[in-house]
Each structure stands twice: as C-alpha cells, then as structure tokens.
C-alpha cells in the first residue's frame, strides 16, 4: 500500500519503527496522503497477535471535534445559523446563552476545559440535557472573546446544537452529512473488530495497563469516535481540499483561518473554526490532535503542498512531538514535489494594461495579473502590505488576504482606489484624485 519509492518507504518505516521502539508504544500506525490518495502506510507493534493494518480501529479522541465543526459549518452555509448568533437563539434556556457559536468553535468562549462531572474520559457519560443543566457562570473561566482556552465542554454544547437543529442525534447527523459522503464507513462511536485496546505503559517497567472505554454520551462530540488509518487518511484528504461536496472549499479555507493563538513561549500554534493550526519549519498545517486514555492520534494537512500526514497509537502518553513533521521531512528529502509547469495563459487586455508599477504615495507597488482575472498587489522592496484580489460581479475586486482582506479595490486608467487609498502611476500623480491634493516636488 504505497505510492512512494522503496527508498522513501524504507526511510519512513524506519522513523516509525524508532518511534514505536524508543517510546514503547504497544502499536503505532502512520500514513501519508498525497494529492488526495493514500501514498504510504506503516504499522509497528501488535494488536492482539498481529501487526496493525490500515483497517485497525483506534480511538480518535478530539479529532471528533473537527468533524462536528464541519457539520456546524454546513448549518451556517445553509442559513440555519450565523456564527455570530448567541447560543440562546438556538438552545433557549441555557445559562450560557450569551456565548456565540464562533466563540465555541474557536475555543474563545472562555468555557472551562472539562465538564462539572467525574473525569469524563474514564467514566460513563451523562445525557446532554443533564450536562447543559450543570453548566452555569461557574464554568466560565475567562471573559468571552478574551483569549484562547481549549474547552471540551464547548464542543459538547456544539454537538447538542447540531442535534437540535437537525432533529436527530449529533452522531446520526454527522454520519449522514459528513462520514458517509466521504466513505468513512469504519468511523464509529464504539469500537468494532479489529480494534486496538487502549493501554497505559508503566513509566519504569515494560508492562501495560488496560484503560477503560465508555460511551461519553453528552460529551461524545468532544472525543467519542473511533476510526481506522484508512478512514483518517480520507479525512486528511478532506482537510487538504478534497471536500467531495461535503463543504465548499471557501468554507474549509475559512475554518483554517486563525481565530486565536495558543499563547505559549512562541506563537507557533493556534485554532481556527474547529481546526488546530500549526506553523513549524516553514509549514502551515491544519488538522487536529486526539487524546483519550489509552489512545493518541493526530492528523495534519498542508494544503499548499497537497499532502497530509497522520498517526494513530494505543498508548496514553509518550510519543514524541516531531513524528509527523519528521515523516514530512523524509518525504520532502526523498521525493520533493515538482513545481507545476508554467504555461502561457490568456489575459484580459484591459487588465494587462493596468499591470506593472503603481505608487502608494512615494512607495512603489507591483500589480500582477493572476489566473481567472485575479490580481496581486505587492510592495517593491522591503515593507508594505501585500494582498491578492478576486473579481466581483459589480466590477470591483475583493481582497483575499493580508491587510486588505475583505476590502474593495476599484480600478481606473490613471489610479487604483483601494478602500480610499489612491495608488498612482507616478508618486503622488497630480492628475489623479489624491485626497489632500498634491504640491510640487522640491529640494
């Protein structure tokens, strides 16, 4: 099960084998997805008497949250809710009704990390209605919107929101709208054979302890699901852009936009709408990690490069933080992606005439023509604000990124109007409508 060369596969397997042996993992699987297809799979250790395969189930833990988030975003795209809606609009009577859906999705609602129950990951869950009844002001640990604070409880609430608006359980809604369309038929709420048993590995001896597994009930949307490397590879392809109509590419891109950062020693990790984000080694990754007693899993997609990587393991703790990025490094070293061939493309003559040098006051900028009548405005030399723009039906261009994201660009033969800023062919061209007027240049 590989689309990479034998030397690459050997190097990838060696890295996986080192991880399994040195971190003392009962069983460990990993996979790489390239251009939406499973390119490499590896498994080490034992599940029962056999090596793990791409069909072996492991618990996903919090990767469940990213799937629930997709189902919530489908509701938004259908017009059933707005991300700015207070929870009260859809779950009336809750004492947390002032929190918004966007805050819950991005872990910026200020909610406590864990529910007001016994350790929910190791005990049977309580119904969602009972859980909601227990949530009150005491579970707010920060002012809503103030900061990123990861909350398992927040996704339990979002699961109930999904259930109420769909008129079914969160799990059935997720199955119908997300899992089945992506052909993730081996992703289930409870384990099915063949599945790994969750273990804790003793820190000072080579012995293991079986961890308990229960139906989390109301907390299920925070970490209930089980899956296989094969299914998780399909999810990785989805995160990379192979959405198969489940979600629009624009909405998936919105989910990958940073909404908060994990304020540690360095800002290398953050959160979008239901997706964890990371910047490491020049890579921009989006996905989610998962942790439940006896299980660890993580999936990262790098959409700009068209690949993704994942691992699944049956251990409570102990894996290194660099396994997945090491696997990507090996892939890059052995089989770097070739750039797409450059080919000439037709250009709108009117837009072509506007390309080239423009000036924001004295600062030079270059306007370039992109595919499908898109535009790029970038500073010449150091400093300045760069953005890309896409055409709109009303004859304007909409900013995609950078400082001008969401802002309007209007084109005229002698000037560009970018949200009131006037760009001219010559620095402060007196013939263009520069606000404040233009006097002569002088020594």
TrEMBL record:
Its EC number is 3.-.-.-. It comes from Nonomuraea insulae. Keywords: Hydrolase. Pfam families: Beta-lactamase, DUF7586. It is an enzyme of class 3 (hydrolase). Coiled coil: none annotated. Residues 348-425 form the DUF7586 domain. The keyword Hydrolase applies. One of its GO terms (molecular function) is hydrolase activity. InterPro entries: AmpC-like, Beta-lactam-related, Beta-lactam/transpept-like, DUF7586. This is Serine hydrolase domain-containing protein. It comes from the Bacteria. Residues 20-318 form the Beta-lactamase-related domain.
